[in-house]
Write a structure and sequence with these properties.
This protein is of the alpha+beta class and 283 residues long. The chain has two domains: 91 residues, 3-Layer(aba) Sandwich (Aminopeptidase); 175 residues, Aminopeptidase, CATH 3.40.630.30. 26% of the residues lie in helices and 37% in strands. The protein contains seven helices and 13 strands. The protein has a seven-stranded mixed beta sheet. A six-stranded mixed beta sheet has the order 1-2-3-4-6-5. Strand 12 and strand 13 form a beta hairpin. Helix 3 packs parallel to helix 7 and helix 4 packs across helix 5. It is globular and about 55 Å long. The N and C termini lie far apart (44 Å).
Length: 283
């Protein structure tokens, strides 16, 4: 796998590169929000990228919309359970604005919504759920390589897994007979009390056993203990399974990021699902 790079840009944090052919504004940081929307457009033009996707507080959205950006998705409560995050897009190449499989995407969203809060199946016999450790990094990276031909972050690199374990990511796994059969991760933004539930991967032989949803519920419990208030995911829009997983676990659909991410060998649209961890959904 190759990957786009993360770097500082005028005080903000961005990911960019030819793999996903885009700029992703991950955090506005200390950037001047009156200048940042235009600076991103200029940088995209310089690099020849066909998309900008900017994740910004709702209070800053008008600065971007005034320069031609438009909303694709949102996550209420993203910033400390109070302020919404808006996902705003700009397409230097207008042909990227429309998904060729838009009808399939809408069908998957509808299917997932019908599964909202459905009862969860039992964990298969012989499977246990664990928090991963640095000693597991080699086996984890091998599983990710097997499942994903390409991925937006270098999870096929055991050094990356070890490094992120020490900073802001907690990895979880499903074990059977001492071997990992499924993995996931919780990428925490502790400053803003949110977490991305991501990096779900299940070996082909183990698909259909709802391991992802069991991992997700374990992740939620762990994140609540850390004081995280909002959980979300950015799931492949063309994958019915992951969209059903999050809807079934009680998550709400937040929008589609069109032709957004290079994953599994090509650029795909991604769906956002979110939930509040601060208040029980049963209350």
């Amino acid at each position: 796998m190759t990957e786009d790079r993360i770097e500082q840009f005028h005080g903000a944090t961005i990911q960019h590169g030819p793999e996903s052919d885009r700029i992703y504004l991950m955090k506005t940081g200390t950037a001047d929000l009156s200048e940042l929307p235009g600076e991103l457009k200029a940088y995209a033009k310089e690099k020849g990228y066909s998309k900008i996707i900017a994740k910004v507080p709702a209070s800053a959205a008008s600065r971007f919309i005034g320069l031609g950006y438009s909303k694709e998705a949102s996550i209420p409560g993203f910033y400390n359970g109070r302020e919404t995050a808006e996902f705003l897009c700009y397409y230097p190449d207008s042909s990227r604005r429309t998904a060729a499989n838009s009808e399939e995407i809408q069908q998957n969203i509808s299917l997932a919504r019908r599964m909202h809060d459905k009862p969860l199946p039992e964990l298969p016999e012989g499977v246990s759920l664990v928090t991963c450790t640095p000693d597991n990094a080699e086996e984890m990276s091998a599983l990710y390589r097997e499942v994903f031909p390409s991925y937006p972050f270098p999870i096929d690199n055991p050094d990356y897994i070890r490094e992120t374990m020490q900073t802001h990511i907690v990895y979880f796994g499903a074990l059977c007979n001492g071997r990992f059969v499924a993995l996931s991760s919780a990428e925490m933004d502790e400053e803003h009390a949110n977490v991305e539930m991501t990096d779900f991967a299940t070996l082909p032989a183990w698909r259909g056993h709802s391991l992802a949803v069991h991992l997700l519920k374990t992740m939620e419990t762990a994140m609540k203990k850390r004081g995280i208030r909002t959980a979300y995911t950015i799931a492949r829009a063309a994958s019915p399974g992951m969209n059903i997983t999050f809807s079934r676990a009680g998550y709400t659909f937040g929008g589609t990021l069109v032709n957004n991410t290079n994953i599994s060998g090509g650029i795909e649209s991604m769906n956002i699902w979110y939930t509040s961890l601060a208040v029980s959904r049963e209350s």
